[in-house]
Structures are given as structure tokens and as C-alpha cells.
Amino acid sequence: KSGRDVNEYTAICSGETLALYINGIEAKTFTEKRYRLREGQVGIGVSSYDALPIIVNMDWVTISEP
Asked: How many domains does the chain have?
């Protein structure tokens, strides 16, 4: 969804595997072995090649450990 529509993003990390979902649909799953990122830090990034400014509003964020 774009514009002012609401999207729900989910990231599930399990060991070296990261699964990304947008609105409940799997968008990408990959395994990260190069940097061995396993625990401790969370980051959120937003970018665009053709739309400026980029404005992101978050209604809520939940970070949990299974």
C-alpha cells in the first residue's frame, strides 16, 4: 500500500535466518552468514530513490523474544 494507507511489517529472526512480511504476506527470506548478526540490536531504515521527503509514522512497534 502506498500514500496514507496503513501497512503492517513483520520481521522474524531465527538464528541466521530473517523472514520479512508486509501485510501478512512473505516478502523475502534470507540467511545472513557474512556478518553473523544474531542478537542484541534492532534497526529501522526507510529510503526512496524518487520521492522526497520521506515521512514515516508508526502507530506502534513491538519487539519481543519468542
From this structure: 1
Distance CA 26, CA 61 (A): 19
Whether the link from the prior residue into 53 is cis, omega within 30° of 0, is yes
CA 8 to chain centre: 9
CB 41 within 8 A of CB 53: no
DSSP 12-65: EEETTEEEEEETTEEEEEEE--SS---SS--------SS--S-----S------
How large is the average pLDDT for residues 20-36? Answer: 91
Report yes or no on whether pTM surpasses 0.90. Answer: no
Name the nearest CA neighbour of 6 among 18, 24, 20: 24
